[in-house]
Specification:
Blueprint lengths: L2 E6 L7 H14 L4 E6 L1 H4 L6 H18 L7 E4 L5 H10 L4 H5 L2 H9 L6 H15 L5 E4 L4 H18 L7 E4 L30 H9 L14 H13 L2 H12 L5 H27 L2 H30 L7
Parallel strand pairs: 1-2, 2-3, 4-5
Helix pairs in contact: 3-12, 4-7, 4-13, 7-8, 9-12, 10-12
Tryptophan binds next to strand 1, helix 7 and strand 4.
Length: about 325
């Protein structure tokens, strides 16, 4: 079985865009690949964050992942900071990564502009930590959204450079571009659904009526039907495709084509479909979070499994780079 690695940040307020873009794909993939899924808490501190909330967010995300169908007996689910070899490898890779390449990363440029309190080296080195996450497990495949393709290309570059300097140890990973369509903000369908824009998203822990209300309020740009859809209506169809049966989608598409679609019907059906998918996840998540000790045990078991693999790679890497002293 090929090995897959992917990571998700514990930044709080996971929404249905994250669910469709990453989590649901992971749930499918865990049965086809040897999967490692990582809650990347060290990545979360590259921008301003609240230390008091970090742990809670990690557990929250873990519960959401398990409630969504990640089976910790099938996939290895763990927290990045539980496996210190990630940061150890990051340092070594930092020494063979060009500053110019890091400064050219689109996400670094965007995020550094938004950092009011100053831009720290961790933000620039973010992609090196991401490369270490992947390479330390010699993962062959990495499911990512399109915004991470550039980081993955850099990972491949770092692996090539490492191999040419120190010997063939780190395989170049391939991206799997997740096929979920981009989910746009409900209140502004020209920008991406985002947890930092109030009213733009449906959170995984929204209750049923909140979900219904948010869909009812979604922008629909009522233009003439039949032709090309405006961004708001298109976004509702994207969500409908993700959450409803295909016959239902086809019916609404046909209605749109012959100009008889009532947006209130579309929204009602969509709201119910989302509720049906999200409510059971929300309930399971609450059950899991009610027993935090058990959850931590699950994550620890995942970290132990991951750490065995990480240690092996680190031993090879240290040896190849000339570090012959033992790790005590
Ligand atoms: N940077 C990724 C994101 O924000 C998260 C991530 C960290 C990741 N390490 C990774 C994704 C390794 C894939 C592989 O989405």
């Amino acid at each position: 079985m090929q090995r897959v690695f992917s990571g998700i940040q514990p930044t709080g307020n996971i929404h249905i865009g994250n669910y469709l873009g990453a989590i649901r794909n992971w749930v499918e993939m865990q049965h086809q690949y040897e999967s490692l899924f990582c809650i990347v808490d060290y990545h979360a501190i590259t921008v301003e964050y609240e230390p008091k909330k970090l742990h809670e967010r990690v557990l929250d995300l873990a519960a959401t992942l398990i409630a969504s169908g990640i089976d910790p007996n099938t996939a290895t689910l763990f927290v990045q900071s539980s496996v210190p070899e990630h940061t150890e490898l990051t340092w070594l890779l930092t020494c063979i990564t060009s500053i110019g390449a890091l400064e050219r990363m689109t996400q670094f440029k965007d995020k550094s502009e938004r950092q009011k309190g100053g831009v720290f080296a961790g933000l620039m080195n973010y992609p090196v930590l991401m490369a270490a996450d992947i390479l330390i497990y010699k993962a062959e495949l990495v499911p990512v959204g399109d915004d991470q393709i550039q980081h993955l290309e850099l990972t491949r570059e770092i692996a090539r450079r490492f191999n040419s300097l120190f010997g063939e140890i780190l395989p170049e990973p391939q991206p799997i571009l997740t096929r979920a369509a981009r989910v746009m903000a409900l209140n502004d369908p020209t920008s991406k659904m985002s947890k930092s824009i109030e009213g733009s998203y449906i959170a995984m822990d929204d209750d049923d009526d909140t979900i219904r209300k948010k869909i009812r309020r979604a922008v629909t740009d009522p233009g003439p039907q039949g032709g090309e859809m405006g961004p708001g209506v298109k976004n509702l169809f994207t969500l409908l495709e993700a959450f409803a049966e295909s016959e239902v989608v086809e019916q609404f598409r046909a209605d749109y084509a012959n100009q008889s679609l009532r947006y209130s019907d579309l929204k009602h059906t969509l709201g119910e479909a989302i509720v049906e998918a999200i409510a059971p996840i929300r309930e399971r998540r609450a059950e899991i979070l009610a027993k935090p000790d058990q959850l931590i045990e699950i994550l620890n078991a995942g970290a132990e499994r991951a750490r065995k693999l990480a240690r092996q790679t680190m031993a090879e890497v240290r040896d190849a780079m000339g570090f012959k002293m033992p790790v005590l």
